[in-house]
TrEMBL record:
Protein name, entry field: Glycosyltransferase involved in cell wall biosynthesis
Superkingdom to which the source organism belongs: Bacteria
Stretches assigned to the Glycosyltransferase subfamily 4-like N-terminal domain: 18-123
Single GO MF annotation: glycosyltransferase activity
UniProt cross-references to SUPFAM superfamilies, sorted A to Z: UDP-Glycosyltransferase/glycogen phosphorylase
InterPro entries the record matches: Glyco_trans_1, Glyco_trans_4-like_N
Amino acid sequence: MRIAQVAPLAEAVPPQLYGGTERVASWLTEELVRQGHQVTLFASGDSQTSAELVACAPRGLRLAGIRDHTASHLAMLAKVREREASFDIIHFHLDLLQHAMFADLAHKCVTTLHGRLDLPDFLPVYQAFPRMPLISISDGQRKPMPATANWLATVYHGLAPGLCPFNARGGDYLAFLGRITPEKRPDRAIEIAKRAGMPLKIAAKVDPVDEDYFRQRIKPLLDDPLIEFLGEIDEAQKAAFLGGARALLFPIDWPEPFGLVMIEAMSAGTPVIAWRNGSVPEIIEEGVSGLIVDSIADAVAACERSRAMNRFRVRSYFERHFTAARMAGDYIAAFDCLLASPRDFGKAAE
């Protein structure tokens, strides 16, 4: 199959540091190439891929200091449009702009929505272009969308088994990995660790929009011998960080669409202690790959329970459900469905 993968330009594919969507786009692209498909990746020029790379910006826009990415994305979409006849499927990992530019090609276009859908900001676009096929990354992600949304499939993320290698021993600390932002609730993670009397290592980036929150709400909580703030870490550091943990804390306070860090921890054999929000009940099998909690007290008790969890079972659960090979296979099935039923997705009858 001839597939165009259209990635955001905020980060390289894969990203040098933080960047969930770009990491997924990379894992999927590489696996599709490995499975024999002809893949073209539209991304920043500092991306690394075995597919054909069409450079649409010299480097990832965030590290280049460019804040408004709209113009760069429009220019990239113009390049995709110029070559559309050479693709069987055009797969977008962007939220919005392609819907207006590719509405007449809905029969061969699909968009994976990677973000939250419970805010009203983006809904007018999905209402205006109801025939554009969409893929969700969890069933829970779909709930706020209008009934007119044209869902093609739900495809859970997957990663290569070697990215976060299995660590049979783990360690004695709790881990928090991601961004310092109110909905991720690093304050909850700190309180859980203190109540449990366990060390907590926090590896997280602080976006400019969250600097006040970090300075006012989180930084004062870091002055404790149990708490260690590491800042933003890269992929190599992440594998050791997750593999060396006793458990990953995922105390979210929002409808998480997926939560990549959960499957990264599972890949390392590290169980996840997560709040019952968003995708969590779909991703975690209670007592096998993690523990789902509803309160600080539950989470503190889960820290102790996690000591007895079998890390081999956690890794086995990951291998059954969240590999890149499984993800790519699910996407190909969705693409086949789209190509087999073009009239259901915006192509006029011939």
